[in-house]
Design goal:
Number of helices: 14
Radius of gyration: 25 Å
CATH architecture of the largest domain: 3-Layer(aba) Sandwich
Number of strands: 22
Mean pLDDT: 91
Low-confidence stretches: none
CATH class of the largest domain: Alpha Beta
CATH topology of the largest domain: Rossmann fold
Helix content: 25-40%
Structural class: alpha/beta
CATH superfamily of the largest domain: CoaB-like
Largest sheet: 8 strands, mixed
Shape: globular
Amino acid sequence: MVLGVTGSIAAYKAVDLASQLTQAGVAVHVVLTESATQLVGPASFRAITGLPVSTNLFELSNPFAIEHISLADVADAFVIAPATANVIAKVACGIADDLLTCTALATRAPMLIAPAMHTAMWENPATQDNVKQLRERGGSFVGPAVGRLASGGYGAGRFAPGPEILGEILRVLGATGDLAGRKVVVSAGGTREPIDPIRFLSNRSTGRMGIAVAEAARDRGGNVTLVCGPTALQRPSGMTVVDVTTAAQMLDAVKAASEGADALVMAAAVADYRPAGAAANQKLKKQEEALTLTLQRTDDVLDSVRDVPLRVGFAAETENLIENAQRKLERKALDLIVANPVGGQDDAFGSERNRCTFITSTGTVDELPNLTKRQVADRLLDWVVSRLASN
C-alpha cells in the first residue's frame, strides 16, 4: 500500500501508523509532501518500513520517484494520513503538482483519507464540498476526531486514533479476502446482571478472544457485526459494533444481527443466571445477616439462534474439557465448538494466548498448541471458510 503523509502537525503520528502496518505484514510505501518533511524525516519511515521513502518527482535515487505511475500500480490501497485541507482540495480538483497528488490522480486503488486540521478549516464549506466530492467518487474517510487541537482549541479536526485508522486500512486491504461477501456475527465479552445500581453478577471474560475473531474476519473481507459486552478493550473499527450489558440484551442484539448471516461465532461468556425479578432501585445496605439472592436462568443465546447456516460456540471448562464441550456441541447442535481450559497455566481468561481444542459436529478433535488469540481466530476462520465453501 501507499501511505501519503502531508504537512499537518499530526505528521509525526504517521510514523507509528506505518510501524503498526508493517508489524501487521503490510508493505508500506511512504510518500511525503515537501511540507511534511519539515515536520518528520524520511529516515524515520525508512527505518520502520524497510522500504524507500519518496519525497519528490525528481529524486533519481528512488525507483518510484520519477515514474509516479509505478507507485500507483503497486498500491492495494492509497491512504493519506494525515491529510491537510490543502491536499484534500487538490485531490478533489485533480491537481497533480507533486508526487503525492500525481500518485493520487493515477491510482485506481481504493482511497482512504484521515483528515487533520483546525476546526475552522474542517468546517469550511469548501472543505466539506471537497470531502463530499471525494466520497461520491468512492473515497472513504476516517475521522477527524473531536478533541484538543495543536492550536490549543477544542473541536473537530483532530487526527483520528491510530487503532481506528489501522482498522479501516486493514478492512480496505482485506476487502477481496476469502470472507468477501459473507456476513459474520461475532459476540465478545461477558455480561453483567444487575443486583442494584452498584453491584452486578458477572464473570472474568475480557472480550479479547471475540474481538480477535471479529478483527480477523474483517481483515479477510467479511461484513462483520460485533456484539460486545462490557470490556476495557478498545472497540475495533471497520465493522458494526453493538454494545450490550445484560444477557437479555445480548440475545436481542445477536438475533437482530444474525438475520441473513452466513456464520455466527459466539465467543461471549454470557451469564447463565441473573437475579430473579427487577434489580433494586437503591443500593442494598450492608447488614449483619447474610444476603440471600434468588437466581433464575437466562435464555441461552445459541439455543435461541439456530437459523444461521454455520454456528460456532465456545466452552470454558475446569474439568473434563473434551467431554463437557462435546455435550455442549451436541445439545446446541453446533458445527464447531472451541474448548478452553480454565485455571492453571493455560487459563484462557485475560490472557493474550489460548491453548484450546476444536471439536466439530463430524467428530473431529483438533488440539491446538499454545497460540495467540489472533492466531486461534485465524485458525477458526480457516475452518469457517472451508466449511462455507463446501456448503
